[in-house]
Every structure is written in structure tokens, then in C-alpha cells.
């Protein structure tokens, strides 16, 4: 196997475990001209906030930014579905010249009259950052006019990458959840419930975890931001603990809430059997243990007994297969490495769009020698390393799917397009089933040109 | 989920959009650029634009969509993007080695005023490689405008005038699927007319599975062909909105006569296309085409009673919507609401407006249609609430309305994100019309079956 190297200027972003001692470079700007798989600040902000179901999400910019994000998140709702519409100020040339503030104010007025929302988010896009519309002022005036909350999200696309958008979203959430009155402030940390951060309820995943925790005896106060509502978020500071699933998007908010309100936080993962059990145990312990821990153990035993034979059945079919992972955040990559291990599948390439240094260190400690680790990869690199490493399967998002298929390799969506929950015990079975379905599909027999024609 | 859409119209004056029926210029430019052989589209702006366009096109075509980005940062936005673009050009040729880079701008780079031709001139371009560009500000027009601008750029950069014209046609297919482009080429082949099609995304976004990833697939219009387009005897622009600008530019630059026709959806528009080729190249229409046309008429005869008097709402891109409306009328259907998100051209102008074109077509059904250019799907939903229809035809986003109002729905246009195969199969030409008849009749009859009481449920329909 060739040493993992690539295009000029990209060498520092790629390492092979066991071969190089140099640190992997990450959290840096992409190289101009790259076919990057990354997105922008607005994208990061939008994906985090969009699952707030009863809010108007008004995109201030030309039409594209709103069009491409219309209902793409895949997060499900148990209540209102206002968030599944696409609202845009549709800026035109004259707005660019004369400023878009009036149009924004008028659009808010129209939407408030039509939908009577409790909450409006206004997102700034690249161009709004350049023409300098004062979102704060427009939001404040509109809030006063209508007596509802109007929160600006500072998400001009060019001001960093997706991770900066997560911060913009967290800033907006921090404002939203801040206690408005002294009476509210007195309630901080007083409920015996917890907040669940960084689960976007894709395919209903937050519902599964809510159910598990209910069985353990733990109430979820608010989910940020899966199936979220204005009312739920307004009382978020009453919880006494924050648990974080997606660290990339939410650790910043958790930090701010700890600093401002003294609400502690801990990292959890509900991907795979081992992580799920470990997380349930740690949550129970953090909330005092005792009967909570007992119920957690009962749940773990009960659910494991149910799903372990199923997983083992798949494991027997999958042993020896090799997987490549290219996902958004480092946290997800770490969980996937462990989950593949449960299935007897070896991860031979692992990369992320926005992984952080400490996450890459964890990844390095988990994988076997010879595994390629890379940050901010492009399609050529994915192709090169998947082929060289002999990966049978790629885990990624929408843009990676056809790439894997063209290479005649199996694929799993671990992003917005997934159609079944991958969290918890039920999710672990779904994951194993999906790995099996795609790896062992008969279509691969026809994959090579002329493959079936001559035999 | 559209329960909140009120039936009562109230004037909307903000200019904002609720559930858009269009998207922005750069994605159209990116798609057009993919139709040039060995070309890497390059998005001069922030990473998000490029990422979104690739994502959207990937979902529609289900093929890898390659494009690079200038990866703008705050610094570039303040000091201009010249350095980013020059670095990008250098890196792209070094890393991906395309023959051509097609640069398009975004709202950001348009607003900060980057002078793309000057930047390209100063860029380090290897021998034998080419960079061209189109200005595609997102705050004007729509994705159709962007497609048109990039196609026009192919003419202004590459077409070369020739004193003696060749017996060949330029075919500009417009913003349609590769399956449609293949069908248009098949018809031209059957007619025996030599042609240059540009852009041509067939063989680029509908590539075969070989077990290998090819960054620059076999398809696409070659640079030599683009140069030679100036020597053609005729340009046939299919679709006024997506194709006529390039055709006019070619007429001006290289004196190639141009004719703009409707996108050949349905029997009349396909006839017009076939006859235009016949007139210019004095070819007899071959029996194979006559036979196809006859089969289509036969099918339309066999099924006309399913369609007659059925009310239909049609939305999407203007050229496609125009063709679909004309075909619906020829099937005996009544277009009740017709809407495009793309701004529609001035009423009364030389080139006409979307509203006027559609009014003329839809009027033949004996019904005055509600017609809107630059509209959104909230407006369409309100119109449907006030005058219900039997069928909705449009892109994927129509599924919300179809569900809310319980209307049979046929997916045609861009984007279609929730079904596959569509981009391989044509809706243009006689064969495409046959497919449309099948799709529309299927939707209507499935609905009839679903709603039939037990005593009315029949085997033969």
C-alpha cells in the first residue's frame, strides 16, 4: 500500500496511522480551487436551527440559499410543521444597491400576519454581510411591533466554514433560552430534567432516546434542536444537566450555558451498543445513581438481549469487510469506528469535514496501523484512498453516495438523507441491517463492465 | 403541512418568497458548464454555494457532480477575490487537470465587483488549457438565467466566424435532462442533419457504471465543436428562456441565422423542431420518425377520453412549462393554473412574455387560465384552493400541494429529488410525449381506481 499522500498543499491534512508522527492539520480554511465537500457558515447555522418546528426561518438573501435548504434536514416533528416551508426575502438587484432592510421588515410583517408565529429567525447570507444590513435593528423593531421574538442569526456564508455557522446558531439559541425575567432566572437548574443537545431528530432518533431515558426515570426537558418548539426552548435553563450528542455543533452552547447558569454538561453517544450502554450508565450516575442506575442496567440488559443475537447474525455475514468513513464531524466518525468494530468490520479510512484536533487524536488511538486519516477531503482523495485501502463500503452524505456507487462500492448515508433512525438499540439493528443490505446486494455482481456478460 | 395556506388572497407587497418555484443563477451555470467536454465548473464565491449546487444536482441526477470553489473567506470579501481565483485556477489545473475551467460568479463576488476577465487574463494558465466565465449574480433572474448566461459565454468565448457555412445545425437544448438531450440528438440523426449540440450533458451526468470513477467523463460538447458552431448554417434554440440568448449572440458574432422554438415537448413543438430541420436542410422526414409520430397520435387517440376536460395545474421552468401546457391542451386538458418562478419577460416586448405565450396556448382550451411568472408555490397553492384541479404537473416540490389538496401528481422538470431514473428518460420528442401520456394517464387512472367504490371498480379501463 502506498504511503498516504496527495495533492500539493494537502499533505498536512492526511496521515497514515503508524507511518507518520506528524500531527494532522485540521480546522483550517480549504484550499482555493479544491472540490471541497464542505459547506458555509449559513449552512451550519441553518441545519442546527431548522428543527425548531414552530418558528419562521426567514432567509435574508437571494433565493438560492433558501431554495437549497428547503426541507432538506430530515428531522421529524411531533407538533407544528412551519419549519418545513421555505421563506426568503428573495433579494433583487435594487435591494443590493439600496439595502435590504425595508424588504426584510416587510417580509417579517407579512409572514407574521399569515402564520402568527411565536418566533422568527432571520438568517443573514453572504451578500447581506457585504451590503451591511443591520439585522439586529430590524429584528428589534419587528419584535417590538409584533410582540414576539425575532432573532437574528449572523451567518454570512464567507465568514468561516460550517463550524462557524454552528456557533452562530448557538449564539441565537443562547439568546433564545436566556431567562427573560427575574422569576424565570430563579428557576434556573431547578427542574430535575435534562436537556439533550445535538440530536436533530433525523428519522425520529430523539424520540428513541427520550423513551429510553423515560424508562430509566430521567425526563428530557428540551432537545436542541430536534423536534423543538419555542415553548420548550424557553424553559431550557430549568434543566440541571445538558447531555451532548453532536459535539461539533453544540459543545459551544453547552459551555456558555455552564458559564452563565452553572448547568454542567457531559458528552454522550447513542450510536452502537457499547456507546449507548455507556451513555445510559453515565447519565444515571451523573444524576445520582441509585435507582436510576438500577433501571439503566435493567434497560441495557433487556435491550441488549433483544438485539445482540440480531447483530451477531449480521456480524457473521460481515466479518472481514472493510469500511471507509467520511462524515461531517469527528464525533460521528469516532462512534462509527466503534460501531463497525461491533459488526466485525474494519475501518481503513476515516475523515471528516470539520473534525477538531482532540477528535482526530481519539480517532488515531482507535484505528489500526495503516488506516488513512484525513481532514476536509475532496472526491479525488476519497476515490484514491478507498481504492488503495480496499474499502468495501463508504459512509458519508449526499455528495459521496454516487461517488461510492460509481466505484462499485456499497454506501451508507449517515447524514440528512437517512430514512431510518441509527440511534440506540433499535438504531444499531437498523445500522447493521443497512450495512448488510448494501454490502451484500446482488447488484454488485453486475458492477464491473462486462462482469456478468461473460459468465 | 400546508394547512396554514389561506384560501383568501391578500396582496403580498414585500417581494419575499414563500416556497419558491425557482433557484439561483449559479446552479444553472454549473449545469451548463458540465455540458462542455473536459470542463470543471468553478464557483467563484463561498464554499456553501458550490456545496449546495453540487448537492442539489447530485440529488436530481444521482451521479457525482464535480465543481470547485474559490472558498471565500472574510479577507477575500474585503480585499477582493482576485487572489483566490488565481490560486484556484493554478490549483485546479495542477490537481484535477481539466481541459477547461468554467468560472461563474455568485451574489457575493458580483457585489464586491470582482472583474473576472481581468483576473483570468492575469492567471497562470498552462499551455493548451482554457478558462472562460459567465457573470451569474444570484439576485437576478433564476437558475434558467444562469444556464442561459453560461451557454451564451460558450458562444462569446469560443465560436469562430466562418466565411463559408457548413451543412450543419447548432442545437441548443436548454435546461433539460441528459435523457432529453439524447432524444433531441437522436431525432437530428434520424433526420440526417449534421449538428453541434451545446451544452450537452449526456455522457456527463448519466454515465454508465464501470467500477471506476472518472472525473471528466466522455460526454460534453468539445471545444472544437464550440469553435465550429460559428460555421453552422442554422442555430435552433430550443426554449426561449434558456437558449435564445446564446443563439442571438451567435447570430451577431458569426452571422449564423437563428430560430427559437419551444422546447419540443408534445406533438406540436416536436413537429416544429422536425420541420425547422427539414426546411433548412431540405431533408425528407424519414419513415422512422413518421412512424413514431403516427404511433404517438395513435396513443393519443386511444386515450383521449381519459384526458378530455380534465383541469390541470402546471408549474416549473418556463420553457418546460410552455411545452407541457401546449401538450396538455392538445390532449384535451384544461390548463387552469400555470406558474413559473423565473421572471417572465416584459409584457408586450418583442420577445413576448411568459404570460402572453401561455395565455395564447391555454386560450385554445376555451378557458382563461391563471398565469403567473415570478411566482411561488404559496401563490400556486392559493390558486388551486380557489379553483381545484384534477392533476398537478411540476417538480418535486409540488408534492406538498398534491398531498395537502389530495391531487394526482406527475413529476416533470427540475429538480426531482424523490424519484430516480427520470433524468435518463426523455419527455421531449414523440417518444417523450408517449412517456408523458403514460405518466399522466397512469396518475389519473390510478386515482380513479383508488377512489372507485367496489361496485364501480373495473378491470378494463
TrEMBL record, chain A:
Residues in domain Nitrogenase/oxidoreductase component?
Answer: 40-439
Known role: This protein may play a role in the biosynthesis of the prosthetic group of nitrogenase (FeMo cofactor).
Origin species: Anaeroselena agilis
Alphabetized UniProt keyword annotations: Nitrogen fixation
> Does the record bear Transcription regulation in its keywords?
no
The family classification in the record reads: Belongs to the NifD/NifK/NifE/NifN family.
InterPro entries, per this entry? Nase/OxRdtase_comp1, Nase_comp1_CS, NifE, NifE-like
What's the protein name? Nitrogenase iron-molybdenum cofactor biosynthesis protein NifE
The gene it comes from is: nifE
Q: Which PROSITE patterns does the protein's record reference?
A: NITROGENASE_1_1, NITROGENASE_1_2
Q: In which pathway does it act?
A: Cofactor biosynthesis; Fe-Mo cofactor biosynthesis
UniProtKB/TrEMBL annotation, chain B:
Ranges for domain Nitrogenase/oxidoreductase component: 24-444
| EC number of this enzyme | 1.18.6.1
Q: Name one GO molecular function term.
A: nitrogenase activity
What are the required cofactors? [8Fe-7S] cluster
Q: Which reaction does it catalyse?
A: N2 + 8 reduced [2Fe-2S]-[ferredoxin] + 16 ATP + 16 H2O = H2 + 8 oxidized [2Fe-2S]-[ferredoxin] + 2 NH4(+) + 16 ADP + 16 phosphate + 6 H(+)
Top EC class of this enzyme: oxidoreductase
InterPro entries, per database record: ChlB/BchB/BchZ, Nase/OxRdtase_comp1, Nase_comp1_CS, Nase_Mo-Fe_CF_bsu
Annotated cofactor note = Binds 1 [8Fe-7S] cluster per heterodimer.
Q: Which domain of life is it from?
A: Bacteria
Keywords for this protein: ATP-binding, Iron, Iron-sulfur, Metal-binding, Nitrogen fixation, Nucleotide-binding, Oxidoreductase
Q: What does this protein do?
A: This molybdenum-iron protein is part of the nitrogenase complex that catalyzes the key enzymatic reactions in nitrogen fixation.
According to the record's subunit comment, the protein's assembly and interactions are:
Tetramer of two alpha and two beta chains. Forms complex with the iron protein (nitrogenase component 2).
Q: Which family does it belong to?
A: Belongs to the NifD/NifK/NifE/NifN family.
**Which PANTHER family does the entry link to?**
LIGHT-INDEPENDENT PROTOCHLOROPHYLLIDE REDUCTASE SUBUNIT B
Report what the protein is called: Nitrogenase molybdenum-iron protein beta chain
Q: Which organism is it from?
A: Anaeroselena agilis
